[in-house]
Design brief:
329 residues, Growth Hormone, Chain: A, mainly alpha, disordered C terminus
């Protein structure tokens, strides 16, 4: 019974990510979308910080069954609030004409005009899809490692007891929150101050964060436990900076009505990377230790950055059919 319930908890969140990226373009001009995506993602990492004390308090006072009900009930309340308050910009009663004009003046290419959604196969055959999906394949295992493996690593490799884990395990997620708020504004600043095209700005931000991610390769090598925790924080910051940057690129490279499908497919590829890395880590960590896996995590995003610069081509102002044809692998 536990397995299917765990499956549902991991099956539903990706849909939320697709909806976030689909609803981002109507509300934000192109140069602000990465910042908006960072704010969206801030919620999930903040929830990761707040969930442990909330769950622990619920279990201690009311039992573990009630803890599940409280966490699930919060999700139901969120859905009710969303249905009650969300409106498309064209229908929102509080949107002023000035704000509407600001949202509309975003330099959108003509190919973003509403068209029939292409098939999944058509998206899979586009060059730009693989240009953003493959870097996510290499990047996303970092988050899976932080969420699932970090407490075990601190316990087994660093000798932390439960109290020490509780006092330190939240720190990388705070750093991740900060990373959520860096990538978007930085790429927008590059466009505003350096007149850098938005795609090149995001590629540069991704590359700088990938360089910072290399510090994570030393987590298993350093002798000091405090230094290891600091490097985990640095890795979490860098990961969220580049993750938010590349996730928001779907809205820059594909027509608006393709964004959710593209993001979902790229997330599927990223999920495969996380699954394979987690499975391999579980099978081999007892034999070879954690150090090789942290080295892989630290260097993987450099491969992603190279892919991003060599495969992705900025979208041009052409009809969708031409866009698909010109961006085939």
């Amino acid at each position: 019974m536990l397995y299917p319930l765990r499956w549902t908890t991991h099956e539903t969140p990706p849909g939320l990510r697709c909806c976030d990226d689909r609803l981002n373009p109507p509300w934000f001009p192109q140069h602000e979308r990465a910042t908006a995506a960072g704010i969206f993602n801030l919620g999930s990492s903040t929830g990761t910080i707040l969930a442990p004390p909330l769950v622990a308090w619920s279990i201690l006072h009311y039992g573990w069954q009630t803890a599940f009900m409280i966490v699930g009930g919060l999700g139901v309340l969120w859905v009710a609030a969303w249905l009650a308050f969300y409106q498309h910009p064209n229908r929102h009663w509080a949107l002023t004409p000035e704000e509407s004009a600001y949202i509309g003046v975003s330099g959108e290419p003509e190919h973003r005009q509403k068209q029939d959604r292409p098939s999944v196969l058509a998206i899979l055959l586009t060059r730009n899809f693989w240009g953003i999906a493959l870097p996510r394949f290499f990047a996303d295992p970092v988050w899976g490692t932080l969420v699932f493996w970090m407490p075990l690593y601190l316990s087994q490799a660093r000798g932390f007891d439960l109290k020490a884990i509780a006092l330190t395990a939240w720190m990388p997620f705070v750093a991740a929150d900060i990373g959520c708020m860096v990538g978007g504004p930085f790429s927008a600043w590059l466009k505003r101050r350096c007149n850098m095209p938005i795609i090149n700005g995001k590629r540069l931000v991704f590359s700088l964060a990938a360089l910072l991610m290399t510090s994570m390769a030393a987590v298993g090598i350093v002798k000091s436990a405090s230094t290891a925790v600091f490097l985990l924080c640095l890795g979490a910051f860098a990961h969220q900076t580049l993750s938010i940057t590349i996730i928001s690129m779907s809205a820059d490279l594909f027509p608006r009505n393709h964004v959710a499908t593209t993001t979902g497919l790229a997330g599927f590829i990223a999920g495969i990377g996380t699954f394979l890395f987690t499975l391999t880590m579980g099978l081999l960590v007892e034999r070879i230790g954690y150090t090789p896996f942290f080295i892989i995590l630290g260097l993987g995003d450099l491969i992603g950055a190279a892919i991003l610069w060599t495969i992705v081509k900025p979208a041009v102002s052409t009809p969708e059919s031409t866009l698909i044809d010109k961006s085939k692998v």
